[in-house]
Input
Amino acid sequence: ITGASGGIGGALVSNLLEDEQVRSIHATFHRARPAIAHPKVSWQRLDLTCESSIRDWASDLGELDWLINAAGLLHDIDSGPEKSLHQFQVDFFMKNMSINAAPALLLAKHTQDKFDHGRPAVFACVSARVGSIKDNRLGGWYSYRSSKAALNMCLKTLAIEWRRTLSNVSVAALHPGTTDTALSRPFQRNVPAHKLFDAARTAAYLVDELNGEASCRQKRSGQFVHEAPQQQLVAVSLDSLRGRSRIRVELRPVTGAHPLIALEGSMNLCWIAIPRTGEARSVKLEHSDHANLERSL
Output
């Protein structure tokens, strides 16, 4: 896990330490070594903007099953996301590219031989939905948007090459959702509470997605995984019952269980969102009169 000193990177380390199948974690930091101490974790300082630093670090690694790059830049002490073109600066633009985009290809270049073992493997980078060209409706943030768009294209192109040369590896660009970390904290004012996630919840979602990547690597490699971590849509059927609508919801949790829940009420159109991670799950119904009903299961 590179960039493991950040909020999401550190949470990924903590999450994977709880997995009995994980034998060892190589975690990197740039300046200050995190306080996480565990026999499974070895910490190394790494400058992701320096190819020789990455090459030397990778040369000491053995076989890898997963590589996750969680490093990223949105703002620094001098500059932040541009609100208008007048704020654009070439130096800040190139700094975004050197931290958000280029390390993915440098890491792939110097670790690809570590994946040449035939087992299902994952190469993933934490990206952002603001890097989507189609989804850009607000404008602004020229440097950050461009660097994440570049990252997504780098990973898509890498997936095509590795499909021929490393077919056991799934390449993924991961959108974690807005997570409460130092990176996003100055920009959380207008984020609804239900769309702001703590780092542990985000890490659980990302690990769940990466397990899916490893199991269906050929079908999904190169895709931008951007499902919001707080919910998934499930099918709903409405049957008339004595003048009222009866809603039956079939839940298919990750665990493989298949509980069936029936809720009754005078509801018409609705959608249901189920959390994809964590033990506690809730059902939220929104229908035509904008009333809400929540139940835990």
